Amino acid sequence: MSIVVNGLAVAPPGDPRVSLLDHLRETLHLTGTKKGCNQGACGACTVLVDGERILSCLALAVQYDGRDITTIEGLAEGDALHPLQAAFIEHDGFQCGYCTPGQICSAIGMAAEAKRGVPSHVSADLGGAVTLTREEVQERMSGNLCRCGAHNGIIDAILETVA
Amino acid sequence: MSIVDDAKQAAQGLMMGAMQKLVPLAPDSWIPGGVPDPLIARKHGLIGTPVSRLDGALKVKGAAGFAAEYRFENMAYAALVYAPIARGRVAAIDSAAAEAAPGVALVMTHLNAPRMKNMPVFGSSPNAVGPHNLPVLQDDRIHWNGQPVACVLAETQEQADHAASLLKVTYDAEPSTTTVAGAVANGTEQAMFFGQPLRNDVGDAEALLAKAPVKVDQTYRTPRHNHNPIEPHAATIAWVEDGLVIHDASQMVSQQAESIGAVFGLAADKVRLTSPYVGGGFGSKGLWDHQVIGAAAAKLAGRPVRITLSREGVYRTVGGRTLTEQRVAIGAQQDGTFDAIVHTGLSVMTPHNNMPEPFILGTRCTYAARSFALKVEVARMNMLANTFMRAPGEAVGTFALEVAVDELAVELGIDPVELRILNEPDKDPLSGVPFSSRHIVTAWRQGAARFGWAGRDPRAGVRREGEWLVGTGCATGTYPYYRMPGAEARITLTRDGDAVRAQVEVAAAEMGMGTSTTTAIVAAERLGLPIEQVEVGYGDSAIPGAIMAGGSQQTAAIGAAVIAAHNALVADLLKLAGNDSPLAGLSADEVGSIDGGLASRTDPARRESYASILSRAQRGSVSVTKAGSMPLELMHWSMHSHSAIFCEVRVNAVTGELRVSRLLGSFDCGRILNPRTAASQFRGGMIMGLGMALMEETQFDERNGRIMNPSLAEYHLPVHMDVPEIEVLWTDIPDPHTPMGAHGIGEIGITGVAAAVANAVWHATGKRVRELPITLDKLL
Question: Domain total for chain B?
Fold first, then answer.
């Protein structure tokens, strides 16, 4: 059994209670993925599994055998930031930086959902192609809380790059 | 509070009172800021240009290390058990099953915890920051519903959490006070804030109110709030030799180290507390029970401990903003001038802390009136100690005051912007001292123009777009300029060939306000160095001095300490330069820092670079540490940040759903040092104000004193869909009496917003909501 994290195969935990989030943070020491509530309410723990965004606090690590997981640490290519990471700096899309990795991973997953035509609560046409307007991005990112109030910069950064 | 603490507060209050009589009379030149900071006059530097935060790359890569991300060898994980009663005692603890559970290293309760002193409670000495004066796991007493009664250590968090669930604790409940009515029935008392009563009387306000031809007189209510930083409180703790090392999440690094040291009888230099990154604080990231419990457990188990509060644990053990019930009455002449402002009411705190919500602070300086009656009373309840939360006092006080002003504007038939400008004071309305810098009228005019306020139809409930009723509202916000004593700065210049590098160290905290970036900008300008050659050290109790990221004062405190250290550095460099330097014969007052060296202020050709001075003196480096001046300017001038907030709301006539469609903040906060991070501070505060207006409430079960919504699923924060594109603008007029001409900006953003929303809701619907949050049940 192995989980692939940022391209590297790692062993799953021996204790089946361990969440994917805690496995990343405490066993693999990949602390870029954050724990904000541990109950799926804040989005700080968002990672990409085979390109889809999930809340890693609600996922048991042992269930991810053979799956390909990308965390915030897997986005930059060496010193070259992912364009969305760079845009977050340019638009000041954070203050404390704690929700930031989750916002960035979530936005990448969100953009892929839109490309696949997945509608949202504010989509007028449930069957058509999705255009990521500001309102669409706001709606689709509302599961990622930010308490510092960097919402405007986050949406600007997403609209400029992945939307 | 104990009688001793009250006496100490009273003594501090007396001394403050004497100072407040003398300092206003002193000549300006005796006062810090009496001679303007030379940086104010410098127009073409880094100050005022947008600079991206220097720690940005680390944060977007997830590489910034927060408190719960440090590791020690052989570290154990902690889990806490919380009492479910509001008052009483622990009757029995059966820990057999927990102790036998896999991986468990320790079960610690009051029966086996090491003996410790109580935390030094906030205000009892300059660096005391304890939240309450209760023993922590020292006896069987329960003082609030949620108090930790046991701590389990295990090899993993999962094992600790499971073992904690196996602890069987039984309780003997005793009579408690968990209702506001019950607390009031027990008796109220005059609220004290930093040793002085929250009370002001000018003239006979009640008599003038009674005679006033136009008046409003209403009661406004604000609920409990929680800070809810996305990073839960956490600490990674180890005893190293005879000292304590804590990687913490702190907005008061040195004070926290000293206070926890006092609990364990350690000298200040035996506690090393670091906190380079803090995942949001808003007043909450201070010393609470969990750090004490974690350190005690580490001591008892003989191994390092990570203690991370669950989100529920944060609600149980980290206090928030308390509730208020406020009466605001304003009496006015037909021309709109105010005869009387009455702002009185109740705040609730506990028997074991002293933090009344000081909701009259903003009312002291906002408007001119012929009379004032301002008073805060407190009642005490058995609950978790409440604490400071963003703009304590002003955030909720401006809601009451500014809705009342709007109600009065309606009564008078005067535009609410014009009514506010009409009652603009020309000096501090209570103390009579001059304002240091007040350009709120400019902020109102600029904001109104940008928002398109002119021509607004004042009638309520007459604009409808389909199902949606539309309205606009405004309010003013205010927050004082503070500068606390105790800040120090250490500047070290190190020679690097023909250049120098500067290290500027301050015991400050960075929660995302941009402090480390702004400090680098200001230090670079002051030293005459490119920002790339300046490194800022912070967030470490090993750095001299004590600075708090609170009261919006950190930038000013750092600024004044860096001024003092820079002056000392110049003096030291002149001594090192000696008689062979072009600077020979000049005094420290006659030279300034420019282009990587010192130069005569009157003859810039007389200059020598830092590297040259150090090289000739055969020195590799020079280092100075200095404290900032005493903040006497606060008594000599009336010093405040100001805002004019405008918003547009849409209320669904069918469902009562409330959306804020436009929000604009026009600020007067002195000179803005870094427009990029400042705009984020303004917006961030305003969004927390939106939360206050629309949804935020810590629900408290009055039957048993239990917080009912201790989670981010049930305590609602503004999400992306709730936040419109927020416009911010500022006057950018420097205050001639502050370091860099700047004012604090961390708290002004939240003030006034809830009132602006409530006023817009009235304009949209005709419904006047006087109790926050403005949920849809209040609009149906």
Answer: 1
How confident is the model over B119-139, as pLDDT tens digits? 999 989 999 999 999 999 999
Task: For B625-681, write each residue's pLDDT tens digit.
Answer: 999 999 999 999 999 999 999 999 999 999 999 999 999 999 999 999 999 999 999
| Residues B31 and B23: beta-carbon distance below 8 Å | yes
Asked if B277 and A97 come within 8 Å (Cβ–Cβ), the reply is yes
> How far is C-alpha B684 from the chain's CA centre?
13
Considering only the beta carbons, identify the residue of B311, B676, B726 that sits closest to A37.
B311
Query: Is residue B231 within 8 Å of B277, Cβ to Cβ?
Result: no
Minimal-distance CA residue of chain A relative to B714: A41
Strand B271-274, strand B243-248: pairing = parallel
DSSP string, B237-300: EEEETTEEEEEE--SSHHHHHHHHHHHTT--GGGEEEE-S--S--TT--S--HHHHHHHHHHHH
Q: Report the run of H or E that residue B214 belongs to, with start and end.
A: strand B214-222
- Of the candidates A48, A74, A100, which is a domain's last residue? A74
Quick check: B4 pLDDT over 50?
no
Give the structural domain span for A105: 83-160
- Do the chains contact at B280 and A149, CB–CB below 8 Å? no
> Is A70 part of the contact surface with chain B (CB cutoff 8 Å)?
no
User: Do residues A94 and A128 both lie within one domain?
Assistant: yes
**Is B747 a known active-site residue?**
yes
The answer for residues whose C-beta is within 8 angstroms of residue B707's C-beta and 6 or more apart is B145, B146, B315, B316, B384, B698, B699, B700, B701
Q: Which residues 6-65 in chain A show a CB within 8 A of chain B? A: 15, 17-18, 22, 25-26, 29-42, 44
* Residues of chain A contacting B711 with CB distance shorter than 8 Å: 37, 39, 41
Q: Which of A51, A74, A97 is the last residue of a domain?
A: A74
Q: With respect to residue B196, please indicate whether it lies within any of the assigned structural domains.
A: no
ipTM, two decimals: 0.98
Answer whether A142 sits within 8 Å of B712, measured CB to CB. no
In this structure, the answer to whether residues A112 and A47 fall within a common structural domain is no
| Of B745, B753, B755, B769, residue with least CA distance to B689 | B753
Task: Quickly count: other Cβ atoms within 10 Å of residue B485's Cβ.
Answer: 15
Is residue A133 less than 8 Å (CB to CB) from chain B? no
Estimate to the nearest angstrom the gap between the alpha carbon of B294 and the chain centroid: 25
Residue B343 burial by Cβ neighbours in a 10 Å radius (0-12, 13-18, 19+): buried
Looking at residues B533-538, what average pLDDT do you find?
97
Its pTM stands at 0.97
> Is A90 within 8 Å of chain B by CB?
yes
Helices A151-160 + A83-90 axis angle, to 10: 140
- Of all residues in chain B, the one with the smallest CA distance to A93 is B680
Please give the tally of structural domains in chain A.
Answer: 2
Residue A163 is predicted with a pLDDT of 82
Do A103 and A133 fall into the same domain? yes
**Residue A101, amino acid:** P
Distance (Å, rounded) from C-alpha A22 to C-alpha B116? 33
Q: Is the pLDDT of residue A109 over 80?
A: yes
Instruction: Tell me the two tokens of residue B590.
Output: 């006659």
CATH number of the structural domain spanning residue B547: 3.30.365.10
Which residues make beta-bridge pairs with B170? B92
